[in-house]
Amino acid sequence: MPDLVQAVGRALRMQPGEDKVASLVVPVLLGPGETADNMLTSRAFGGLAKLLEALRAHDARVVEQLAEQQAPSAYKPVQKAAQGQESRGERNGSGGPSAPARKLLKFSTPRDPAQLAAFINLRVLNPEHEHWRRGVEAAVIFAREHGDLKVPFTYRVPEGEEAEGVGWPASLANFPLGQWIADNRRFYVRGDMDEDRVEQLEKLGMVWDHFDVAWEEGLAAARGWAAEAGHLLAPLDATFQGYRVGIWLKNARAAARKAQEIEQRRAEGLPVESSAGALSEMRREQLEDIDPSWCPTWPVEWQRCFHHVRLHLEAGHLLPIEPGDVVHQGEDLGRWVRSVRLGWDNLTTVQQWMCEQILGIQPAGEDEKPPPRRTQADKWAMNYKAACRFYEREGHLRVPRKHVERVVVGGGREVREVRLGAWIGNQRSRAARLSPERVEQLSRVGMRWA
After folding, report:
1. In the prediction, which pLDDT does 82 show?
2. pLDDT at 125
3. Phi/psi-derived region of residue 21, left when phi > 0, alpha when psi is between -120 and 50, beta in every other case
4. Helices (H), 75-191
5. What is the span of the domain harbouring residue 318?
6. Which of 123, 179, 214, 315 has the fewest CB within 10 Å, making it most exposed?
7. Once rounded to an integer, what is the mean pLDDT over residues 421-441?
8. One domain for residues 195 and 248
């Protein structure tokens, strides 16, 4: 350091107008595990910071221009030829620091403009606590790798081989970046954060609102799931890299339907108590950009099967019509087609048009439909008919427990066996719960209740 101070003094004593340039070479001796990118936390760069502080006392404008980032913070590797030009200060274009600043400070290898600006801000212009500098350095690397600062709360900087593969310096190993980001969000909400710190983090892509962070995390997981599945009609138990996408989408659909109900009430001139929990138009558009059919008015399961059948047909295959013909992503497409044909009348007009015009599905004919399921009332009527037949033949209703009565139904086309003895016993034990009408009907055919 004394040699550097003396060199600065000799440089400043040069007479103006002599067209002479003084070059000050500052050695940086890196410690074990450090790299040239560890400018914010490495003690090796302390001499450079002090030298720039001294120069700033004589010409603040030129030194402060180093803190004006004029290029994107994304790191781009430089070829050897370009490195040579950089070292000679021959770099053209608007990238990196300003021209006067480039003339002042040159490195043997290129520096990321965002990293250089942070170095000047934090170690020369506004020296801060080491914890803040470490956090900023970790945030710069994380943002460079991920494109944002959506850091999970439990995230810590990796160490060892995992850190080397990503480019994390050893000086930041195990740094609690997630907690550091959360603390700064809390300071920001309380109004306890300086404007320059706010600006530094916002340049790195900081998201201050916790709800916005949660939305962005869910949206990123939804994009990843859709990229693999080909749609955004995830089942409820769907996950992507541990994130529960199915639950997140279910809540988003509920919020979208609430927003639609609010719009309808406003259109009808009805009062709206609160818009809390409703999905904003911007967020709905974000999901529609992934899959326009992400929130159908009918069940998601139906739309998901429709999507799979459409892709199956577009691939040149035949329409599956029987259960088990085609199973894709756990969905039995043949069973779905069969249910659509048999339940045609239960579909909306739009669903019918989609199935008929896009998939070529036709409703089932009368001969294909199974007989309608008998209701409890139908079953009771059948047993009562058997009781009447027994009473007409025997003159009483003292039916043995295992007696089976045969009843002709369907205009004489079908004979059914009714376990009349068991049914009579059940009606007698349930007498208190029977309706008065049924009690009266059974009494007319000789029912003995005691």
Report:
1. 39
2. 63
3. beta
4. 80-87, 99-104, 113-120, 130-146, 161-166, 177-190
5. 300-359
6. 315
7. 90
8. no
